[in-house]
Amino acid sequence: xxxxxxxxxxxxxxxxxxxxxxxxxxxxxxxxxxxxxxxxxxxxxxxxxxxxxxxxxxxxxxxxxxxxxxxxxxxxxxxxxxxxxxxxxxxxxxxxxxxxxxxxxxxxxxxxxxxxxxxxxxxxxxxxxxxxxxxxxxxxxxxxxxxxxxxxxxxxxxxxxxxxxxxxxxxxxxxxxxxxxxxxxxxxxxxxxxxxxxxxxxxxxxxxxxxxxxxxxxxxxxxxxxxxxxxxxxxxxxxxxxxxxxxx
Length: 248
Ligand SMILES: C[S@@+](CC[C@H](N)C(=O)[O-])C[C@H]1O[C@@H](n2cnc3c(N)ncnc32)[C@H](O)[C@@H]1O
Prior knowledge:
Elements: H1 2-8, H2 19-37, E1 43-46, H3 53-60, E2 64-69, H4 72-84, E3 90-93, H5 99-103, E4 107-112, H6 123-136, E5 137-146, E6 159-168, E7 171-182, E8 185-196, E9 202-212, H7 216-225, E10 229-234, E11 241-245
Helix pairs in contact: 2-3, 6-7
The structure holds S-adenosylmethionine.
S-adenosylmethionine binds next to helix 3.
């Protein structure tokens, strides 16, 4: 798992049309939700921050952010990106399954966004992770989780998921994934085709990972099983946002 994101770390922003605009959009959306559900919340723990998409976005909206991820290379890049934008975020490498012993408790909000939890391949391991998020949040705090809406995704073999074409630094990148399902689990191959626009030279990198195509309904049940209350789903124009509260 960490290998996939280590390999992807330098290219991850290319999954977005415009990563900075994506961060701004997610930051605005999350800040609106947090002000409404948890007014006064200030501290946020991101347990799967990757290169910092939500961590940086929330810091830009005035939150005090602590962030970790399993991938050392993603954390290395997140540190640089936060520094470049003038944000003071405490980053570290940590498996979310050990989040409480690593970070301790008392955070107003704990987040795991953009489909990180479905990397855990069973209900049992997802509940174990959700219990860690719960333990890291203060009484009266909560969690924000975003995952793909797998109930709307086609299943089968050789499913093509195009990400688009990006041009950066004299290179053109064509990025797509192929999904191969076996039950609820699918193997994902990420293809990054890079063409140098001057020489015409083309190189393709492939990276492999696995996901559990858990439905948002099942994820919400598992959130309740882990102890969260007032679990709800908020629609967004990107992926749905799942919220859970910790009893006061
Ligand atoms: C799709 S990326 C999303 C990253 C980030 N939230 C974003 O939107 O840019 C999923 C992230 O989950 C992380 N991850 C997967 N399993 C993890 C685990 N057990 N503990 C911590 N991070 C994990 C990966 O390393 C990866 O950075």
